[in-house]
Amino acid sequence: MSQDPDRKQVTEVLVGEWEELDRLLTGLAGEQWETPTCLPGWRVTDVVSHLIGTEAMLAGEATPDSGVDVAALPHVRNDIAAFNEQWVAALREEGPAAMLARFRDITARRAEMLARMTDADFAAPSWTPAGQATYGRFMQIRIYDCYMHEQDLRAAAGRPGNEDGPAAEAALDEAARTMGYVVGKRAAAPDGSTVVIDLTGPVRRTLTVQVDGRARLVPASTDPATTTLRLPSTLFLRLCGGRPAPSDSVDVGGDRELGRRVVDNLAFTI
């Protein structure tokens, strides 16, 4: 997706992702809601609490006072995490049926809000988890967050799926934005180098990063690759999201030392 998000496209993908989450949650047995996920301290139901809480905030609802000192929890490391944890703590005792009803209610209301918005609304300045930008940019990030959490839920419940399609493509767009920073800053790729990340599927894509004074994502390059990484798109997203994943299964070609530095530094969010 572009730097200037298309309101209709972003809205359709985000609402479609909520529908996918609804289908997944509807199919879970009661005990599966209690299953721990890969996210520290969070069960399946806690991930759903987080999704509900963020959309409730965007709908103008106040953050609940759970009465819990969430800042004291070991996995709460910043203000955003503390906000998320307030919702998790507040909804901790809700049962699966009540949680599903809450999720359906808030996503239906948010879908109505988005449908009423104009292009000017999407272009309006807004805080986002990635800094000050526009409301439309925030909604792009919402697609990424919801999709990544869908995959967290699927992994915990043993229900793999939805690994390609519009939401997966949008999540890869979000990860691709960071590759210049990952390769140039975090992996310290030397000037003149070219890193090619070949995603073999289910979403097939080639990401090329050139370092010429600064590292940047380019459409393609005629220069030979300094290092090449080959891996499935699903594994790439898990590594970018800081999720547990077999990084040693990435096929690294060319400069292996540089390639491993890139792999080891892919995580740009947790």
From TrEMBL:
InterPro entries, per the entry: DinB/YfiT-like, Maleyloyr_isom, MDMPI_C-term_domain, MDMPI_metal-binding
Domain Mycothiol-dependent maleylpyruvate isomerase metal-binding: 17-154
Domain MDMPI C-terminal: 170-258
One Gene Ontology molecular-function label: isomerase activity
Keywords carried by this UniProt record: Isomerase
Signal peptide: none
Protein name: Maleylpyruvate isomerase family mycothiol-dependent enzyme
Organism: Actinomadura napierensis
